[in-house]
Design the sequence.
């Protein structure tokens, strides 16, 4: 995913779901190749991302960026999506 794509999916509030879909496709490919353990690991990660997608959204933090000058790591915060509770 490009940085622009990541930003788009965060703004559309479907970043976790998008990553979950990608992991599911890779998991299916691994399963077909007989790599059940790796496929199961990705399936569990997919399930966790679906959980996050259903309950949280990402918002940019006001904290200062960290990391190298070439690849700063921006702080993000997860906000609980209370409409489903």
Sequence:
């Amino acid at each position: 995913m490009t940085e622009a794509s990541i930003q788009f999916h965060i703004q559309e509030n479907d970043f976790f779901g998008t990553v979950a879909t990608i992991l599911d496709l890779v998991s299916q490919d691994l399963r077909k190749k007989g790599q059940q353990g790796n496929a199961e690991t990705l399936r569990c990660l997919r399930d966790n991302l679906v959980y996050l997608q259903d309950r949280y959204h990402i918002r940019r933090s006001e904290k200062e960026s960290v990391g190298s000058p070439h690849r700063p790591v921006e702080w993000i915060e997860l906000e609980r999506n209370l409409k489903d509770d």
Observations:
- The chain has three helices and four strands.
- The two ends are 31 Å apart (CA to CA).
- Helices lie at 3-11, 15-32, 36-55.
- The beta strands are 56-60, 66-67, 72-73, 76-80.
